[in-house]
Specification:
It comes from Microbacterium thalli. Keywords: Glycosidase, Hydrolase, Membrane, Signal, Transmembrane, Transmembrane helix. This is OpgC domain-containing protein. The chain is α/β, with parallel strands linked by helices. The chain contains 29 helices and 13 strands. The longest helix has 29 residues.
Length: about 850
């Protein structure tokens, strides 16, 4: 290919790459903005929800199929709580809270009702309070539902059921969870459901008297299917009713009757209305309907648990005719029964005794045809879509990992650090004159060991910060850099290094080869990122490894929301379990591919992947002296972030901690600085340059010290307002965002450290170069592997994280092992550096 043509194609492709990067940044995130949550106590419409098969499905999958966010999700849990129930509950709560959905808890006793104690209820309420406190989740407790049915182990035991229900209700109502107790029997036609005939012999005299409501000495259809099981009204916040359509079509084939399912039949017109009138399926007339007795007379809202089954092995009516026929009737009754304000639909495939112990399908979102029809009918019925409560997403979990210190203590440290850096900068001029032999031998155009040394120091700070044990390293890493963190320097210095090496790459193989090499590196970074996410996920299944220290994050109350969220546990691997499905659902695959999941110490990796993709196109402009355009575009994107802070160009996990539109400004400036390093150094070391830099350093540090003195000694720092110092941290230095204060502090740190390293290179290199330089030259490698050291340390049995000597030993060992890995080039061919 002719060189001119090759250059033209390279330029065109680089321009296209830049355009794609710009469009990617400008594109809205895949997540739609949520409506403001409603007050859960407000009568603002009909709630629709789903009871999922949580082992094979999740809220994201359901909402993705339906195309809308429901108000509720339902889950069945064992009671008393065991560890499995707690874990399932926590996963359901984190998933539901990400959509601001109400959580319906069907608590199913797994022991004799008489053995349930108040201590069981207290443990249950503690979990209710924790979920409500941490996730603002409103919870409806269906305790021992369908207690009038013969098919439940806790069924048809009115005395013990009422005692157990009231015990739980008393504890829950005395607690602070704001949970609602739901009394939820099954629709009564067919009661006592044949299989209960033999139970009469097992009943105590008290239960026999309670159930025999007509006094004939027998348990028959003439007896009340609901009343004996109704507890004290004060224990009930909401009544519920289970009303399923088993596809048997005729009124005589009521639930519990041994009538085989022979074909798929759409429900008869008016069947649900007849059920609400308590007429469908009864052979003995009922004096009043469930709705009138318990919803109207007791003044309670009604939660309906419903669904319609379909057997694909049988002939008959279509699935749409069966299921839509049922949900339309249910929605029609909701319109005429105002106390019916919540409906959950069984969204699963399971074996049903009513269908001859065969597997049947209850789902209404499994096909696009059904889901579309349901969505249309739900919209027409005016259901209230979510969110209902506060939306707490995995992105908020990622954002909470930025731990900050609040108030004047932090600002005092920033001021002190600025003063020390300013003094060090001024002293560097003196040292340069007194000890010229210590100067850095700047004889390389492509490698600057001063930058490598700073990168090595920064990556050690990152490693120490993420391995959260007490040691001299941790005390230094949290304070030594002042207003900024290691992340800012990590991104800026990465840009500088890439800007420096690009000209050499062009000289070796031409601009096109340099671009292709850069994209290959970005691809490698991306694949390694996916690999790390997967490896950590796989490790979570190893019996003796607890991966939750990196796959979840417990809020320490030092993030954006302060102490209000202390203790909240965030799941940073949303829907990862769905990746094990066959085939895995697209929404889970999409979250994986877009890096929406991953260990929290690793979240900045996604930022590097995106920036690396844009790197060749940016360098194409810089090489053509259009650095001014690059910086103008960069600040334009930063302005978008400032004025539209909620705009997220990507749903990736990193964007919550390191917003792309803000953090790209560090990388682009680094590229420009690296490419024009020689010219910039020459300018800054000229007499005018030294004067300007000196004025900046002294003026900035002096400004902070002046304001600090006014605050400390009680005078007004004229011409500034007296309370300016108290406002500085919140307005410019918080670590939850890249504000003006951190952007100003960054060049102070960079200029001062670079000046000191320049004039005192030899002694510093002799003392720390053996450690900082090799780690700095492989900083990305160190960052990637350190995730597994964080996990390993978290799994050390008996480790006391507040023990100074244990923490010192741990940090020293980890740094030494990583240094050895770098020296031996362990997996250098696989892991990018």
């Amino acid at each position: 290919m002719p060189a001119r043509l090759k250059r033209a194609i390279g330029g065109m492709l680089s321009a296209i790459g830049l355009a794609v990067a710009v469009m990617l940044i400008a594109a809205p995130a895949a997540q739609a903005a949520a409506d403001d949550p409603a007050d859960v106590s407000a009568d603002d419409g009909l709630w629709w929800g789903a009871e999922l098969d949580w082992g094979a499905d999740g809220p994201d999958g359901y909402a993705d199929r339906l195309g809308e966010t429901p108000a509720m999700y339902s889950i069945r849990l064992s009671y008393p709580l065991d560890e499995r129930a707690r874990q399932d509950w926590m996963r359901a709560a984190t998933s539901a809270s990400a959509q601001g959905a109400v959580l319906v808890l069907s608590m199913e006793p797994r022991t004799i009702l008489g053995d349930l104690t108040r201590d069981d209820a207290i443990a249950f309420n503690e979990m209710l309070e924790r979920i409500n406190r941490d996730y603002d989740t409103h919870q409806l407790v269906r305790f021992a539902p369908e207690m009038n049915g013969s098919w439940e182990e806790w069924g048809q035991q009115p005395r013990e059921f009422v005692r157990a229900f009231e015990t739980v209700a008393d504890v829950v109502h005395d607690g602070a969870s704001d949970a609602e107790m739901v009394w939820a029997p099954s629709y009564g036609a067919g009661y006592p459901f044949e299989r209960a005939d033999g139970r009469l012999e097992e009943l105590t005299a008290t239960d026999r008297r309670l159930l025999d409501t007509d006094g004939d000495g027998l348990l028959t259809e003439a007896d009340d299917p609901y009343g004996p099981y109704f507890p004290d009204p004060d224990a009930v916040d909401r009544v519920g009713l289970t009303m399923f359509y088993f596809g048997k079509g005729e009124a005589g084939a009521a639930a519990g009757r041994d009538v085989p399912l022979q074909g798929n039949e759409a429900p008869e017109p008016g069947e649900v209305a007849e059920r609400f009138a308590e007429r469908w399926g009864y052979t003995v007339p009922q004096p009043a309907s469930f709705y009138d007795r318990f919803a109207v007379d007791e003044d309670r809202p009604l939660l309906l648990d419903t669904g319609a089954l379909y057997d694909f092995a049988l002939t008959g009516d279509s699935e749409l005719a069966v299921k839509q026929g049922w949900w339309r009737q249910v929605l029609a009754e909701a319109a005429s029964h105002p106390r019916l304000n919540a409906i959950t639909w069984l969204e699963t495939v399971r074996t049903e005794a009513e269908a001859g112990a065969k597997e049947v399908d209850w789902r209404v979102t499994a096909s696009s045809e059904l889901a579309g029809a349901l969505r249309t009918d739900l919209d027409a019925a005016g259901v209230r879509w979510g969110p209902i409560t506060q939306v707490i997403t995995p992105q908020e979990g990622s954002a909470s990992t930025v731990q900050v210190r609040q108030g004047n203590d932090e600002m005092n440290w920033i001021t002190g650090s600025a003063a020390v850096l300013a003094i060090a900068f001024l002293l560097s001029g003196v040292i340069g004159r007194l000890r010229p032999a210590w100067r850095y031998p700047d004889d390389s155009a492509t490698r600057d060991l001063r930058i490598d040394m700073v990168r090595g120091f920064v990556i050690i700070v990152v490693v120490v910060t993420h391995i959260e044990v007490l040691s001299p390293y941790s005390l230094a890493s949290l304070n030594v850099i002042g207003a900024i963190t290691g992340a800012e320097l990590f991104v800026l210095l990465s840009g500088i290094v890439l800007g420096m090496v690009f000209p050499a790459a062009v000289r070796r193989g031409g601009e096109w080869a340099a671009a292709v090499g850069a994209w290959a590196r970005a691809r490698k970074q991306y694949l390694v990122a996916l690999a790390v996410i997967l490896i950590v996920f796989i490790l979570s299944f190893v019996p003796f490894i607890d991966a939750t220290p990196v796959t979840t994050f417990t809020d320490r109350g030092t993030g954006a929301d302060g102490e209000a969220t202390t203790g909240r546990v965030y799941d940073l691997y949303p829907n990862a379990d769905r990746l094990l499905d066959y085939p895995p659902p697209w929404y889970a695959v999409r979250q994986f591919l877009l890096l929406e999941m991953g260990p929290w110490p690793f979240n900045i990796m996604g930022l590097f992947v995106v920036l690396s993709l844009a790197y060749p196109a940016i360098m194409w402009l810089i090489k053509r002296r259009m650095w001014w355009l690059v910086l103008a575009l960069s600040w334009g994107l930063y302005a978008v972030h400032v004025f539209v802070p909620g705009f997220a160009p990507l749903p990736s996990q990193f964007n919550a901690v390191f917003p792309l539109l803000a953090w790209q400004v560090l990388f682009t400036h680094g590229l420009v600085i690296g490419y024009y390093r020689r010219q910039i150094i020459a300018t800054l070391t000229s007499r005018p340059g030294k004067i300007l830099v000196g004025l900046f350093v002294v003026a900035y540090a002096g400004f902070l010290v002046y304001l600090w003195a006014g605050d400390r000694y009680g005078f007004t720092p004229t011409p500034f307002p007296a309370d300016l110092y108290a406002m500085l941290y919140d307005s410019g230095y918080q670590r939850i965002d890249l504000n003006w204060g951190r952007l100003i502090d960054l060049p102070l740190v960079l200029v001062s450290s670079y000046a000191v390293l320049t004039v005192a290179w030899k002694p510093i290199d002799r003392i720390m170069g053996w450690l900082w330089i090799p780690l700095g030259q492989a900083s990305l490698y160190v960052f990637i592997v350190h995730v597994f050291f964080v996990l390993a340390v978290a799994n050390i049995p008996g480790l006391d994280r507040q023990s100074f000597w244990q923490g010192t030993l741990i940090h020293t060992a980890v740094i030494a092992i990583i240094l050895l890995m770098v020296k031996r080039k362990f997996l250098f061919s696989v892991i990018p550096r």
